[in-house]
Amino acid sequence: LLLTFAASGIGMAETTPRSVTVVSGQTLSEIAVREMPGVPMTDAVAEIQLVNNLTSTHVTAGQTLLIPTR
Question: pLDDT tens-digit profile of 11-53?
């Protein structure tokens, strides 16, 4: 029953990711800290990697990243 409730989205917060564009010199850790305040950096980095299918923490200028919301 709980699984059905959670899967239906009833009572769940909006979770649509937003996007940011990496600027020259930025690291994924910097983006995580800035874009996901209050979330431990390692957790934020992991969540950004997951939503963007990244296999490393390497990002490049001009790259668009989705930022998950909580």
Answer: 445 578 899 999 999 999 999 999 999 999 999 999 999 999 9
How far is C-alpha 42 from the geometric centre of its chain's CA atoms? 11
Q: How many CB atoms lie within 10 A of CB 13?
A: 7
Structure tokens belonging to residue 25: 């010199």
Q: What CA–CA distances, in Å, run from 3 to 10, 12, 16, 54, 70?
A: 11, 13, 20, 28, 19
Query: Is the Cβ–Cβ distance between 51 and 12 less than 8 Å?
Result: no
Beta strands in 1-70 (DSSP E): 18-21, 64-67
Residue for token pair 């020259």: 24
Structure tokens at 22: 């990496």
Q: Do residues 19 and 3 lie in contact, with contact meaning Cβ atoms separated by under 8 Å?
A: no
